[in-house]
Design goal:
The complex is a heterodimer.
Chain A lengths: L1 E7 L4 H14 L4 E4 L10 E8 L12 E6 L2 H6 L4 E10 L9 H9 L3 E5 L1 H9 L6 H12 L6 H11 L2 H19 L1
Parallel strand pairs in A: 1-4, 4-5, 5-6
Antiparallel strand pairs in A: 1-3, 2-3
Helix pairs in contact in A: 1-6, 5-6, 5-7, 6-7
Chain B lengths: L3 E5 H11 L4 E4 L8 H11 L5 E4 L3 H13 L4 E6 H14 L8 E6 L13 H8 L3 E2 L4 H18 L3 E3 L3 H4 L1 E6 L16 H4 L3 H24 L6 E3 L7 E5 L2 H13 L4 E5 L8 H9 L4 E4 L5 H4 L7 E2 L14 H12 L9 H9 L14 H12 L29 H14 L8 E5 H18 L4 E6 L29 H7 L5 E5 L3 H18 L3 E6 L14 E3 L9 H5 L5 E4 L4 E4 L19 E3 L5
Parallel strand pairs in B: 2-3, 2-4, 4-5, 5-7, 6-7, 10-11, 10-12, 12-13, 14-15, 15-17, 16-17
Antiparallel strand pairs in B: 1-8, 9-11, 18-21, 19-20
Helix pairs in contact in B: 1-2, 1-6, 3-4, 4-5, 15-19, 16-17
The chains are: A alpha/beta, B alpha/beta.
Chain lengths: 185, 617
């Protein structure tokens, strides 16, 4: 599996690659990922790569990704070309009309890319008092719920439980479930 | 097999450093190297070694500290980023000639791209220049194993050894095998010997030829004994192309050949680019009709080849001379080297969608609530026609507040004002100059410039933006903070104000960064003082980094839609991610996704339209 996780610096993207890594390792699989640190973390566009299996390089080639996880819709759209034919995009959408763009839809159809969207900010407003720092865990939950990878919701739950700092553990697990239920229901 | 853990490349290097028995590890932070030293401290704590682990004030300091530990017989290491090695270059060139005692690892992280640097220079050139060997890892796991070999090589030839990961190796995450700590019984034992430890010209005349002999011998070792790092991956069919690759480019090309199912391309991996095992490379070249060289970022392998007639690389334009060799770039180079058409899918629909949706890449900017934003706003407000030299750190992003005009390198914010001052002085002009520098950068290389300006009587204002941390690189402590890395290790805080006063600054003002009007007044007073007395003056803006030490009251704000006249002043000069402009309504609004309720923008709107939420009429 080849993942590309995109968003803006400060959205907690590094934590999600930690979670993916934890899951892969508990399966006994080899892991290769590439992260962004430094200046780009200051609110700028961030692209993180993650590969599970027998790979030499941590970088995903354009057109090879199985899943694009987008914490920000614009960063998601901008990086759709990472996906292979038949790949999935899971996008945190804050302007629902944007995804209706005709050319965007046509691009997705031509490449058989499935676009899954989740109104992350609205959900966190409704259920978490607008604490948007939970966006990363919400998206991971949604990833499990949408069935866009072979990683199960149970594996995600175990990883979040193991990796969360004590004071965030309960809230993280609640948010993970919130994301899962959004697609599963 | 030992326990495996998923480590960042930098953590793998750190683990190697601790396991290899390094007893003195020092560094100055800089992306992409910053995570190495904190991880050294973490593993040293976990594995209960006595390793001294310290942040130094700059890379030259770090290099020299590590060097003297090696003179004493200890395994040591100095860690830095590529531009840090420029600062440490003086010491490197000298120490390369020494007959070292303990193993000395120089870990230098390069930043092709660049992602977070002012240059994308290739440190392997520095290894060539200093005539020291360089190891170039392709993965985190290989980087860890190279640390051990670097120490062995260093102790065999009594020479510093460079480990040169690039950012993609530093920041790759990979499962890596963990080992035990090598137990070395090496009490500190500095043996006095001026021929060995004093770089007198007479000694250099003896040591330089010796250094050349060491290089010849190491090259021979690289030809035969380093098969783990230098090896051939033969083609399974008659090869159409041979590729010589090192560093991350090797990993990229291996994945690419596998994805493309190519069986007609042979690859020679080179993990020891300096000194290059030339015979091994020439043998590979001789057996292939065409040879492509892939390495980042300069043609270091390529340049060491005596005959380049069959070589495709940077000398003939086949490989771009700048930028990162990403998989897409490598793919294009590969097909063009093969003389084949690259299969491509059209992305024109996506391009059109992005244009219609006005989606563009988002450049980095100061975080919402960043105290620097308020300081920059005050500086610009005090002297809108000032010249604003600045420095390397988060505050370089003050370009967005239009309060940063020129940046060269660490410490140059304190020296550029002298040049600007003199250029105007010879024309008999008083030009307000307000320079900005951070707390860590001030101690890194700001002090010599400040002493120079006091001595020569240069009038300007130096604004020290003290957020009590080295923020851009992830929050390392520095002398202004006073804390240290290892458990139970305490440092002493060095007071910025006293340091300035000690350099001879007679006016030092301290203000709270968030108090914009106090900031404006302080900058004005400082410039008037500087002008009247023909000397530099200092304003210290103080507020802890918002991102790393969020500790203040929350002041939720809103834009009064009646009062906002749509002038965009707040957008243009305050430029906060939490403040946005609605192009349809022609009004500013608060983007609650990013706003952290610092409340500073209330002071920014000239029309009083930004107000405390819940307090408007």
């Amino acid at each position: 599996m080849q993942y590309v996780v995109v968003g803006l610096g400060g959205q907690g993207i590094l934590f999600s690659s930690k979670v993916l890594g934890h899951i892969a390792l508990s399966r006994g699989a080899h892991v290769m990922g590439s992260e962004v640190h430094g200046m780009a973390q200051r609110g700028g566009s961030v692209v993180s790569h993650f590969k599970i299996g027998e790979y030499a390089s941590p970088l995903v080639r354009t057109g090879d990704a199985d899943l694009l996880l987008a914490f920000d819709q614009n960063e998601g759209f901008r990086n759709l070309q990472f996906l292979r034919s038949g790949g999935h995009a899971l996008i945190n959408l804050h302007q629902p009309e944007a995804v209706e763009n005709e050319h965007l839809q046509k691009f997705a159809r031509e490449r058989e890319i499935s676009l899954h969207t989740i109104p992350g900010y609205n959900l966190l407003r409704q259920h978490m008092g607008g604490r948007f720092l939970f966006l990363n865990v919400l998206l991971l939950g949604a990833m499990g719920g949408a069935g866009v990878t072979d990683i199960t919701s149970e594996e995600l739950r175990k990883a979040i439980e193991a990796l969360s700092p004590e004071r965030f553990r309960k809230a993280n697990l609640d948010v993970l479930e919130l994301g899962r239920a959004f697609f599963a229901s | 097999m030992g326990k495996r853990a998923i480590l960042l490349g930098n953590e793998a290097i750190a683990r190697g450093i601790v396991e290899a028995g390094c007893e003195v590890a020092v560094a100055y932070p800089g992306t992409p190297s910053s995570e190495i030293l904190p991880a050294v401290a973490k593993y040293a704590d976990e594995l209960e070694t006595k390793t001294a682990v310290e942040w130094c004030t700059n890379e030259k300091v770090a290099f020299e500290v590590a060097a003297a530990a090696s003179f004493s017989g200890k395994r040591s290491c100095a860690i830095m980023k590529q531009v840090g090695l420029n600062v440490a270059a003086d010491a490197l060139m000298s120490v390369a000639h020494f007959e070292l005692e303990g193993g000395f690892l120089l870990a230098v992280a390069d930043d092709p791209g660049p992602h977070s640097s002012q240059t994308e220079q290739d440190s392997r050139y520095f290894a060539m220049y200093a005539k020291i060997p360089c190891l170039d890892p392709s993965t985190a796991e290989e980087a860890k194993s190279m640390v051990f070999d670097a120490y062995t090589l260093s102790e065999t030839y009594h020479i510093p050894v460079m480990l040169r990961p690039t950012g993609r190796v530093d920041h790759c995450r990979q499962d890596v095998e963990l080992g035990e700590v090598l137990s070395l019984d090496r009490p500190a034992n500095f043996k006095k010997d001026i021929r060995r430890w004093v770089c007198l010209p007479a000694n250099v005349r003896v040591n330089h030829p010796k250094l050349n002999q060491k290089n010849d011998a190491i090259r021979e070792d690289f030809e035969k004994d380093f098969g783990a790092y230098n090896y051939e991956v033969p083609a399974t069919k008659e090869p159409k192309l041979g590729i010589i690759a090192g560093g991350i480019s090797f990993a990229v090309i291996m994945d690419l050949l596998k994805t493309l199912g190519r069986e007609d391309v042979a690859v020679l991996k080179i993990g020891t680019p300096v000194p290059l095992p030339v015979k091994m490379v020439e043998n590979f070249v001789a057996r292939h009709e065409k040879v492509l060289v892939l390495e980042e970022t300069y043609p270091v392998i390529e340049m060491q080849l005596p005959d380049r007639t069959k070589i495709m690389g940077r000398w003939n334009g086949m490989v771009p001379r700048a930028g990162e060799l990403l998989p897409e770039v490598v793919e294009e180079i590969l097909f063009s080297a093969l003389g084949e058409e690259r299969p491509q899918k059209s992305a024109s629909e996506l391009k059109q969608a992005l244009e219609e949706l006005a989606v563009t890449p988002k450049p980095p900017m100061l975080c919402p609530g960043c105290p620097h934003r308020a300081s920059f706003f005050a500086i610009r407000k005090a002297y809108p026609k000032g010249i604003y030299p600045s420095d390397i750190g988060c505050y370089t992003l003050g370009v967005n507040q239009k309060a940063v005009d020129s940046v060269i390198c660490m410490g140059a914010s304190v020296t550029q004002p002298s040049g600007f001052y003199l250029a105007h002085k010879v024309d008999d002009k008083d030009q307000p100059i307000i320079a900005t520098i951070g707390d860590s950068t001030f101690f890194h290389m700001g002090l010599p410039g400040l002493v120079n300006a006091v001595y020569n009587r240069h009038a300007f204002v130096l604004a020290i933006l003290d957020n009590s941390i080295t923020a851009m690189t992830g929050g390392q402590p520095n002398p202004a903070v006073g804390t240290k890395l290892r458990k139970g290790d305490t440092g002493r805080k060095v007071d910025i104000r006293k340091a300035c006063e000690g350099c001879g600054i007679s006016l030092v003002k301290e203000v709270a960064s968030y108090d914009v009007s106090a900031g404006v007044a302080a900058v004005k007073e400082a410039w008037e003082h500087a002008k009247a007395n023909q000397e530099p003056a200092v304003v210290i803006f103080k507020h802890p980094c918002m991102l790393l030490k969020c500790e203040q009251e929350k002041i939720p704000v809103k834009v009064d839609q009646e009062k906002c006249i749509g002038c965009k002043f707040c957008i243009d000069f305050f430029n906060c991610p939490g403040l946005r402009f609605d192009e349809e309504k022609k009004k500013a609004y608060i983007d609650e996704r990013f706003c952290v309720s610092c409340g500073v923008c209330i002071q920014v709107c000239p029309h009083g339209a930004i107000v405390k939420a819940g307090e408007e009429a």
